[in-house]
Structure formats: C-alpha cells, structure tokens
Design brief:
The chain has a four-stranded antiparallel beta sheet with strand order 4-3-6-5. It is built from 14 helices and eleven strands. The chain has helices spanning about 5-15, 80-90, 100-125, 130-145, 150-160, 165-185, 195-205, 225-240, 245-255, 275-280, 335-350, 360-365, 385-390, 425-455; strands at about 70, 75, 210-220, 265-270, 290-295, 300-310, 320-330, 370-375, 400-405, 405-415, 455-459. Helix 11 packs antiparallel against helix 12. By secondary structure, it is of the alpha+beta class.
Amino acid sequence: MILNAPSRICLALAAFGTALSPVALSAQAAQPEPSAQNNQGPQTAQNPLGIPTDVAMFGKTDPNVRTATAVVNGYVITGTDIDQRVALVTAASDAPVPEAEMQRLRMQVLRNLIDETLQIQEAASQEIVPTPAEINQTYARVASQNFGQDMAAMSAYLTSIGSSEAALKRQIEGELAWQRLLRRDIAPFINVSEEEVTELANRLEAARGTDEYRVAEIYLSTTPETEAAVRENAARIIEQLRQGGSFAAYARQFSEASTAAVGGDLDFVRLAQLPSELSTAVSQMQPGQLVGPIAIPGGLSIVYLLDKRQILTADPRDALLSLKQISITFAPDVNEATAAARVEEFTGAINSMRGCGDAERVAATIGASVVTNDQIRARSLPETLQQPLLALQVGQTTPPFGSVADGVRVLMLCGRDDPEATTGVDVEQIMDRLAEERIGKRAQRYLRDLRNDAYIVYN
C-alpha cells in the first residue's frame, strides 16, 4: 500500500452516505383578519408564502437547549449516533474543527441521519432489506482498501477516532438499501432517446482535443439578507480545507447542490457547461487548486479542481503501472546523523539493483520492505510523482522521497500498459451518464416526498 491507512480510509468512506438537500418546509396559513392584510408581505417569487418582512418571534429561541436527537417514524437517533458519525467527518481533517462550526456540523449530520433513516425505512416497506452478510461484505471491502483486509484493524481505527464499526455499517446499510430501491423502482422507467445521445456525441466529437475539467464544488445558497453570513461561513470552510480538511467530506455535509452525495464531484465538464463566473475561475486553475468563494446566481461556490484532460484524447496518466515500493523506517528516537547514514545506505542499495527481479534480494540486505502493486493508474498517484514515474523505463526508480517520521521510499517501475488511443465517442457511456443524471434528480424528489410525509419528533 502506497498511502497510509488514516488518509486512505477517509477517501474510502466518501463512497458512502446520503444526498444532502434542503429540507422542504410546508406551511398552512390561516386566513388573516382584514386589518392584518396590510401587514402581509406580497406573494412574489422571492416571498411565495407572503410572510411579513417585520417578523416578530414569540418566546426565546436557544439552540443550546434542544439536544441533537430525533425519533423518525419511531426510529430513535441518539446523541451517540451523531457523535460517531461526526467523528467520521472530522477524521478527514488534519486540523481541529472550531466549536461554532462543530455545532453546525452536528446539525447537518443529524439531517443526514434523518434522511438515511427515511431511506432505509422506505426500502424496507418495499421489502428491500440488505442482509447482515451483504453489509459485512461491503465493510470487508472497505477494510481491504485501507488495511489490507484486516477488518479488526479498521474497527480499531474507527474506535480510536471516536466512531464505531456499527456507525459505518449503518451508513453502508442506508446506501445499499437506497441504491437498490432506485435501481428497482426508478431506473427501469428512465428513458434516454437515441437523438439525445447522438446530439451529445456530436458535440463531444466537435470538441475533440479541447480541455475538460474534473471539478468539485461546495455550493451555498444566499439571499441579500444572508449573503454576509454565508460568505463568512464559506471562508471558515475554506480555512479548514486549506489546513488539510477533506473536500469530499465538507461537500457532503455543507453543500446544497445535488452533487453533495458524491463529495461535490461534478465529474469532467467543459467550460461551457459551467456558469460564466465558475468557467472563468476554472480555466485559470491547476489540478489540486482551491478557489472561492465565487459569487454565482443564487449563492456562493467553493471550487476544487481535481483533474484536467483533453476530450477524446488518450491521456498518458491513464496508463496502468506495475510498481514496487521499497521503503525503510526509522526508530522514534533516531538522531539526525544516524538517519542520514541510513538514507545514504538505502540510496546506494537502490542504485545497485538490477531490475525488478532483484528488488527483494537487495531490500533484504538492508532491512527494507517491498510492496508490489500491479494495477496502479498513474493519475491516482500524487501529482508530484506522476510525471517522474511516466518518464521511467522498466527497472528504474524514482529518487528517494519521504521523511524520518513517515519513512523514506522509492517507487520502481516494473511494467506499464499505456491507454489505447480514443477512436470515437463511447455511446454506451454517454447513455449511462444521462440516465444516472435523471435517476439522481428523481431520487431527490423521492427523498423530498419522504421528508414531507415523515413523522419526526425532536428531543
């Protein structure tokens, strides 16, 4: 494994969760007395309920009085449930979360748990219930991606960050149940016409060789009255992200766009598909760059550029690499001179290797470890390693990299399968993408209806 476990589990956990959508509110307005009509605000697109502008609140509202627990159609969501789910989010951040932001995060997590509960209940009412064996299988797959199939190690890690195996399994159950419900009751009724696919394919062909961008976004809606507060909140989110927070985790909890469920990932888009304000910013960004908040119609956006490529053009970074990672570690109390000597010995041993077949023998002589992976896509590696690796010949290594704390390592190239040149548009892929977009929109409406019909009691 090339990445360390704690950083990788945050990426894997981003595969699970529920969509975040603003909760729809319903109101039944009583008929006002004639004398009260003059105080009602006009029913406009901006004020559809006709609420007066000079609202006076009765009683005292103290957000610290109500505890963050709820009963959803008879299912109890406890404070412990919230604590353990919040821990999954905060574990993705290298910096502590301020107390004010923690309160907002807890309330957002509560909304997520309510949605998740509604999804599980609706699926169960349709006789769709993931079995414990299926949930455990998915849990084991996440463990294999992060801890080398050591489920006990992942369970211990979850406990160490204040979460639990049960919390993650509940999240897995919700995702499995909801996706199966959508596949059975919505997907079969989604139609994508041949004309739509042909039109999009022609546009892609005409754009061959031009740039497209894989963009992730956190969208926060605003009104003239709330813009200042929302902008301040966006600044706090950006600060946390720049201190090492996971963009996907923050997007899942704070973004009001439909892409929140997938960590804000818009996938690859062309500039023309973005609002003009975003396209101007994205065109000047490099992969890994964070920009925002950017004012767009209706709100603010925080944008993160994940990747960049040319349409219908083979990208060398799509090459599949066979790699050997050779690494050494240091004792916690090692001094600088000893560490430098150890690195010099390591570098000399690496330079003496005669190809990949000699790696294990040489590593054993200096107490180094070797990890082999035959299915690493170049673009999945850190940006600083991609080009050096793609410039290597089989049997060559990168320069040593790392630190005394994390260990020093090299990557040896033992094989490379370059991507095939793209000859045309993948019609099936286009059809699948259009269908997925429509399923996502229908799913949002489905969840909105579940919220409207739910019986929820807050404690």
